[in-house]
Amino acid sequence: MGWTMILKDDFGVIAWTRRAGNYLSLFLLLSLFSIPVQSDIVFHKDHRFSWKAGQWGQCIGEECGSGGIQTRTIWCVHTEGWTTHHSHCQHMDKPESQRHCFKVCDWHQDLFEWEVSDWGSCVLVPFFSNELKLRTAECITAQHGIQRRQVHCVRTSNRTTVTLRICEFFSQKPPVEQACLVPCPQDCVVSDFTSWSSCSKTCGAGLQHRTRHVLATPMYGGANCPNLTETRTCSSPVNCPAGEDEYQYSLKVGAWSECRLPHHKDALLSGRTTVDFSTSSSENNTVMLHTPASHRHSHHNHHQYHNHHHAHVHNKYPMSWELEVGYQTRQVRCTRSDGKNAMLSLCTEDKSPLTYQACVMPKDCQTSDWSLWSSCSKTCRSTDLSPGYRLRSRIMTQIPVGGGKRCPVLEEKEACNIMGDLLPNCPRYVWRATDWGECRILPLLSQQDRRLANISILCGEGIQTRKTYCVQVPDDSAPHHRKEVSRPVNARLCATEEPPSAVQHCSIPCQNHCLLSQWSTWGACLHDNCKEPQGKKGFRQRRREVHWESSSSPETCPHLVESIPCEDPACYLWQVQQEGSCIPNKHPCGPGTAVQNVTCVSSEGEDLPITHCAGDPPPTEVICEVACTADCVVGSWSSWSPCSHSCATKTSEGRQSRTRTVLAIPGKEGKECPTTPALEEWRVCNNHPCMVFYWEASAWGPCIEDTSMNLNKTNFWNGTPTCAVGVQIRKVSCTKMGVGSVISKRCPDSSRPETVRACLLPCKKDCIVTPFSEWTACPSTCIPQNTTAATQSRYRTIIQRSANGGQECPDTLYEERECESLPLCPVYRWRTHKWHSCSLVPDSVRRGLTGAGEACGNGLETRGVSCVGESSESANMTECLRWAGPMPPQIRECRVACKDDCTLTAWSKFSECTGCGTSTTRKRSLTGRSKKKEHCLNEKLYPLEETETCPCDEFLSQPYGNWSACILPDPSVSGSLQGWMSHREVKECGQGLRYRAVACTDQQGHLVNPTLCTDSGYMVEICHIPCPLDCKLSDWSAWSACSASCGSGLKIRSKWLREKAFNGGRPCPKLDLKNQVYEAMPCHSECSQFEWRMEPWSICTINTVDDLPACGEGVQSRKIRCVKKRTSGEASSVEDSLCDQEEMPPRAQVCFLACPNDCVVAPWGSWSNCSLQCDQGTTRNRSRRILRLPASENSACPELVQSEPCILNSTCFTYQYRVSDWSTCQLSENAICGQGSRLHLLDCIRSDGKIVELQRCEQFGLINKWRLSESCVVECPVSCILSDWSPWADCSHTCGSQGLTVRTRRVLQEAHEGRPCPSQLSQTKPCPIRPCYLWLLSDWSTCAVEGAECGEGFRRRNLSCVVHWGDWPESPPQPVEEELCGDKLRQQIQQEMEQPCFVPCPGDCHLTEWSSWSSCQLTCLEGRSFETTGRQARSRAVIIQVMENQGSCPHQIFETQPCKEGKCHSYQWRTGGWNNNERTVWCQRSDGVNVTGGCFPQKRPTTVRHCHPPCTKPFSHCTPSGVCGCEKGYTEVMTTHGFLDYCTRTPGVDNNKKADVKTNSGRLKPGPSQAQDLFSEWTLRPVGPDGRVKLWVYAVTAVGFILILFIIALSFLVCKPSKTTKTSPPPQKPLTLAYDGDMDM
C-alpha cells in the first residue's frame, strides 16, 4: 500500500489518493516542514504598504499523514520597514496564514534512504594554508588531497531521487568529501656502486666494471632508474705474448627445446630431416619458472579432515597413470670471444656434444573442483571484533611430471562474519559452586592431636569445602530460567574470572556447658499446688541457678530443683506479732492482756487476705502477766538451735532446742521460778525421710512430624520461612537420689519439665545434579587398522546432596562409551605395471642431427601405476595419493648398449653381515675386450666393488636433561573426579618418582624412537619428599592451686615446647618467654570451711556468803566447738585452730541476777544499723525494756538506751563487690577453636578486707553490675588448602629434546596459623625425546651447463631427510633414510627443484644474477605509514665483457614484490668536509645506507664553493670560509663593509719582486684608502683574519647610533622651531650591502 500525492506549485495539497504498490510516492511534502519559504511575500495595496509573511511553522497534527496543519504569521509593513495596522494593506491580497501539510512519522524512514557512490580518485589540493607555492615542491612522501562522492536521497521502492531534505529529517547527511593522501612521485633509488671488478684480461687492454642494485622502483611518475653498470677500460702492465691467438673459443649450448613426441611427421627438406630448434626466451622463462602468485599467500595450513572420501569414484578422476617418453633437442655452436660464431670443430676435439636426449612428456598438475566452503569459525558475536574464517580445499588428481605446471593452492581461507552484527552473542562462561560439604574439624588438628582425638565427638569451629565448576551462561537476550542448572564445561573457559571460594569456616555445636550456683536451703513444707491444695502430703524444695550456659546447644543443664516429701503442708500461715506490752487487768502487776497483730502470709512472707489461711485465726488478745516486785522474772525464749539431722531415718530423727534464763529471783511471797527443765524446750525437726527426689529429663529426640498440628506447608519461625513445624519429645522421669526412677507421684508436678516442644522440621532436600557435560571429542578422522577403539566420556557433578528423605542421588556420575563406529581408514595400495622397454631418441631425429649411427645410448623407461583397493579392485588414483603412502617411481634412466661400451658382469650378492658396525660388499668384473680398454679400467667411472654398512639393532640410551621434580602418585581414579567432596587428605610428602628423559640413538648417533631403548622414554627413580613436622607441645600440666587462698581467683595449667615445626609443618602457637602456652580457669577457695558452734549459756552462778539470797553479779559459761560449716547440729568437733581465732566467741561472761524488789530489765537488743558508708560522727543505738519495776520509788532502773559512735572496721563495716581476673577463652571440652567464653567470679569484700558471703552485699542493697561471662573467639589454625593438580598439559614440543609438560594447582585457602602453602604450585616433567624428522632443502647449486663450457644450463637443489634434536642449530641435523620423512615426491612437487640459468661465455654481454631483495619499504607520511603491505625490489645489471658485443646486450631489469613488516624510510643529503673549496655530497637513507635517488635534487648542497663577488684583487684568492683573502706574506685590508679592499705586504717578511709591485701599487692609492691603511697598523683590529668584521665593531656602531638619536631628540626638544625649515643633512656615506671594493679601480 502506498500514497500518491498531486502537488501544487506552492506545495499545497490538492488531492490524496491511496494506491497499492507505491510507497509514499511524492513525499516531497516534507519540505513543507523543512524547506525555508521566502518570508517576504509582498502584495501591494498602494506603493507604501505591503503584506509580509513569516516562515511556515512546524507541521502539527494528531496523527501522522496528510492531516497536519502549518501556520505562519502575516503582518502589514510600510516601505520604510515599520509595522503598521493590517487595515492599511489590501485584504483581498492577504496571503494564507494556514495550510495543510504532511506530518512525518518514524515509520516513514523505512521508505527513504541515503544512497552514496564510491569515493572518487584522490585530487591534489593545489594551495594549502594560503601559501601560493605548490605543495609538490616540498612534498616529503605524500600530499594532502580530497576525494568526493555523490550523495542522494532515494525512495527505497524504486530508487528514484527525491530532495535531500527528506532524508535529512531522519539522519544526518553522509559526508560528500574526505581528506586523502596522494603519494609524491617517487624516484628510483639505487645503492652505491660496488668496487671495481678485476680486469677482464691478465695481459694487454681489458675491461672492468662495477654494479649497483635497485632499492626502490620508481612510482607515481618518479624518475626512472639510472644505469646499474659502469664499465671502464683497464690495461695490464704485462703485454700479451706475440703471436698468441687473441680469440678464445667456447662451446655454447642453447636451452633444451620442449619435449616432443616422436610420431610428429617431420618435414622433409632437401632430403634431410631438420629439427626445430626454435626456443623463445619467453618459453625459457616459463618452462620452470612456475611461481604462481598464489603460492606467496602462505595460508596457515589447517589440517582438517574434510571428508573427501570422495563419493565421486566415477571416472571423473583417472584410474591409472601412464607416462610418455619424447625427445628434446638443443642448439650447439662454437663462439669466439668477440661474439662471432666459429666452426664447431674449433671447440670439439674428439666427441661431438649431446644435442638430443629422451625426456618425459610434461604433465601439468591437475586438481579437483573446490569443495564447498566450510562453516565459518566465528559463529557468535564476541567482544573482540576479529573476523572468523572459512576454508575450502581441493585435491590433486594428477601429479605434475617432467616440468609440467606446478600445483596451485590446494586450500583457500577467507574471512567471514567480519562484523558479526546478525550473529547471536557468544556464550559467557561463569564459575558455579556446589553446596558446601559437611563441616569437618579433623583438618584443624595437628599431627599430635589427631592421634589422640576421638573424632566422633569433636565439635566447635571447623572448615567445609565445595567444588567449583565452569558453566555456560545462556545468552542474556534469550529467555531462560534462573534456576536452570547449567551443564559443566571445561574449566579453561572460565580462566579469565576468579573462581568462587572453595573453603569456608563452619561450626558443629558442642554439648552444653553449665555453670551452676550452690543449692539454696530447704524451703517450707508446701502443697505442690497451693492454689488447689490436696491431701496432707507436701514437699520441701531447694533450688540452684544457672550462672552461665554455653550457647547454641540443644542439650540442657542438669536438674535445678530437688524436693523431699513432708507431712501437713501449709502454703499460707498465720503470722502473729505482739504489738504492745502486757497491760495488767487490775493491779499494777499480775495477770493482764497483750494485743497481738495476726496476719496471713505466704511461704515467701507476702501478706495475703485472711481467707487464704486455713482454720481459725489465733486470738488478737493473749493473756500475759506483769511481774510484781517479788516475782521471779524469766527471760524470753532463745531461737531454736540447728537441727541435729538433716532428715529422719529409721534409727534417728532430728531434734532442736531453745532455752530461757532466770533474770531475777523471787522474794518472799513472790511467784517462784520455774523448774530447770521448764527453762528448756525440745522439738522434732527435719522429720521428713532422707529421700531426695528430682525430675530427670533425657535429651530431646529428633524433630518429627506432628500429626495433631495441621499447619500450612510454609510457616514462619522467628521470621524465617520453614518447611513445617514438628515436635520433639523427651522422656521425663521422677528419680530418687542414689536409687533411680520411681513413680511420678513422688515428685512435685509443678516442677515437672516439658516433654514435648515444637521444632522446625528440616526441609526435604532432593539431590540436585548438573546435567552431563558434553561427551569428550571422538577422533574426527577414520581409524587406522588394528587400533583399539577410541572412547569418549562425560561427567556430572552433585550440587546438592539429598537430605531428610529427599530424592537420592544417582549412582552414575561418570560415563564412558566407545566412540560411534568410525569408518576404518580405507586400505589402498599402489600397483606397479611392468617396465616398458628403454626408449631412445627416434632414429630420424638422431640421423638428422649427427648423421647415420647405431641406435644405442642413454634413454628412459617408464611403467604404469594404478591404484587398487583392499580386495584388489581398481580405485581412483586420488585415493592412493591420500591413503597409500609414497608413490613408486614411474620412470628411470636406462641404456641400450653400444658396440664400444664397456661390458661388465652382473653384481654378485652382498656378502653376509657379521654384526653391528660391519659392512657388506658385492662385486662385478669387466668382460671381454673391455678388460683391455683404457677408459673401462677407470674405477671411478666403472666401480667393481660396492660397500654398504650392515643394519644394526643395537641402540644406545643416554639420560638427557635434568630430573623432574619429585612427583607423588596421584590417588585419584577416573570418576573420583566427580566424587562428592572427596575428603581424602592430599599427600604432600612421602615416596614419589622423578623422571629424566632418555635419548635413544643408533650406532651412528642418530636419534631414534625412545621406545626402542625404554618402555616409557624415561629413567625413573624413587625419590622422597620429606614430610612436614608440626610443632609439638607437651601434654597439659596439672592445674595449679587457686591463685586466691580465700575467695575467687584463677588456676593455671600449661604446655611447653617440645619440638619446633620443620619442613613446612604447622607453626607453634604464640608462646611466652618461657616457651609455654597456658590456660587459666576461675576457681573459688572457701575462706573458712569451719565455724564456731556455741551451746546455750549455763545458769548464772553467784558466789553467796552465808545465807544471803543468791542474787547480784555472777558468772555464766558455755561450750564452744569448732565444726565444719553446713553440717547438722550434732556434727563432730575439730581442732579449734581450724576456726578463725579472731572471731572466737567468749566462753564465759559476767551475768546479773536481780535481787528481789530490784528493777529488772530485759537483755540488750541488737545494735541499730550504722549508715551504709559508715559516715563519721554517726552513732548506733541499742535498747532494753523494764520487765519488773523496783519496789521503792527511790531505787532507779538502769539505763534503757545505749549509743556508741560508728567507727569504720570496728563498730561499722562497708561492703563491695570484687571480681576475679578473666579466665582464658574457654571452649567446650571437645572443641578445637571457635566461639567460646571467658569467665570471672564475684566476691563480697568487707571494708577490712575480709571476704564474706555474697548475701551480705545483697543485704546492704548493693547492685551487681559485673558481667560474669562474655563471648570470645579462639582463632582456628587453618592449614593451606590446595586444589587438585590439573592434568598434565600437552607437550610444549612434539619432538626433540626441548619438550616439557606442566601441571598446576592453585591455593583454595591461604594458611592461618596452620601449615603454610608450599612454594611449588606447578610441576614440570620432560617429554620423551622423539626424533624430529625434516625435509631439508639444499641451497641452489652453481649453474651447470651439461656437455659445454657456457650457455643455457640448470641450477638444482636437493631434498634430503634429516633428523635433529629440536634445538637446531645447537645440534646440527644428520641425514637419515628418506622413508622416515614421508613421501619425497609429494614434497618435491611443492618446491621448485630446478631453475634455468645461464653461464656466460667469454666475451658475452650478459645480466648479473638477481640481487638480493631490498629491505621492505612502506609509503609513509611524516614518518607514519598509511599502508600495511610494503614493497621490496631486486635487479639484474648488464655486464659488458667485450666492447664489440655491446650491441647484443640485454636490458637491465628489476622487479618488485609485496612484503610484510615494512619500515618507513626518509632520505637526507649528507656532506663531507671542504677541501680546496670542494666537498663530497651524497644522499643517505634513514637507516644509514648511502643511495642514489630519494633526496630532493632542488635541495642538493653545493659541491664547489665560490666567492661572491669573485676575488679579482692582486695576490687575493678564495679562502675555505667562502670570502676573499690574501696570499701568504700579505695582509688583508678591508672595506668598511667587511669586504677585501686590497692586499698589502706584511712588514718584516722577505717578499719577492712580485710583492714589491703590489706594495708600490698600494702606495699610489687615493686618500680614503690611506685612511683605511691606517686600520692595519692598529692593535685593535676591526677585521678578523678571515676577512669578517669583528663583533665589537657592531656593538660600538649600535651604541654610537643610539647616542646620535638621543642628541637629535634632545636638540629637538630644546629648540622647538616655530616653522619647519628645510635643512640639508650633512653628507653621509650611505650604509649599503652592495660591494664597493672596486670603486677606486
TrEMBL record:
**Key words, A-Z:** Angiogenesis, Cell membrane, Cell projection, Differentiation, Disulfide bond, Glycoprotein, Membrane, Repeat, Signal, Transmembrane, Transmembrane helix
Tree of life domain: Eukaryota
Topology relative to the lipid bilayer, per the entry, is:
Single-pass type I membrane protein
Q: Which GO terms describe its cellular component?
A: cell projection; plasma membrane
Please tell me where this protein is predominantly located. membrane
**Descriptive protein name:** Thrombospondin type-1 domain-containing protein 7A
Q: Where are the transmembrane segments?
A: 1591-1615
Instruction: Tell me the PROSITE patterns matching this sequence.
Output: TSP1 (PS50092)
List, for all copies, the residue spans of the domain called Spondin-like TSP1. Answer: 188-237, 365-417, 632-690, 767-823, 1031-1083, 1159-1210, 1280-1332, 1405-1464
